[in-house]
Automatic annotation (TrEMBL):
It comes from the Bacteria. GO terms for cellular component: plasma membrane. Residues 5-251 form the ABC transporter domain. This is ATP-binding cassette domain-containing protein. It is a peripheral membrane protein. Pfam families: ABC_tran, oligo_HPY. It is found in: Cell inner membrane. Keywords: ATP-binding, Nucleotide-binding, Transport. Belongs to the ABC transporter superfamily.
Amino acid sequence: TTPVLELRNVSKVYTIRQGLFAERKSLRAIDDVSLKVERGGVLGLVGESGCGKSTLAKILLGLETPTTGEVLIDGEPVGAQDRRKLARRIQPIFQDPYSSLNPRKSIADIISLPLRVHGIGDAASQDKAVREILDIVGLPARVMNSYPSQMSGGQRQRVAIARALIMKPEIVICDEPTSALDVSVQSQILNLLGELRREFGLTYLFISHNLAVVEHLATRVAVMYLGRIVEEASVAGLFDHARHPYSQALLESVLTPDPALGVPDTQLGAAYPNPIAPPSGCHFHPRCPKALPQCSSVAPRPLTTADGRIECHLFDEEKAEPATA
Ligand code: SF4
Ligand code: MG
């Protein structure tokens, strides 16, 4: 079957200049990423902040254009699709519902905005749709006249989910949808997302820096490091026996909580690298506890495994085949 969402060799390169007279440098935010998501599946995309996850989300939402490669929905290249049609099929749920909800608008206005932008229905049917979707996400109809500041973090995230779902999308891009929430509220929102997926047959790309968060929701997991997918596997496969040393480190939570601080990891020995000057060979080699002599000079190639794909020299000797896009 054709995957509902597919990325083929997608790269995104930014040219940046740090200071007025500095020379231009290129930053490869996404580096040759190929991924497929089956209809009704949940692909967890995991990696530290700055690895390219959010850039990938923006590409899928049409907010950024890939430098090379293509995005396909139901086998059709997205570039060829009308932007308005695309918005009806893919909707985002972002990390911080507070900054993504207009504080001056009522909840009813916020949730119905996509319908008004796309000219779907009249005022009465939009009002009815808002009431229905509030009920679906577990909010009482009376919040229609409330403002975001009057709601809790969990309620605001329910509003953001309602706004995404009112367009009846097929694919929802969830970018750290629970990381701004208290732990107890996080699980309620994750449960809600799981129920909505089953009820409406939704397909999710679920982006998180936290592997544990994706465990209960995802069907497959892709692990990203400096713009590359270093391992992709089923959830069971990855959580039972992560094979890539970086996936193992993420699972053991030995990484610094905020790599932007540039603090070396106590167990990995080095901080997250600067994406403008990625390490030679395998980008992970300065932090890898299992690095081989060739790792600092030769980049590993993606290999197909029984359960997905991996790129790491530890597996070069296995009967793994070079991965095709
Ligand atoms: Fe570690 Fe080498 Fe594998 Fe990179 S290729 S993850 S440095 S063992
Ligand atoms: Mg991000």
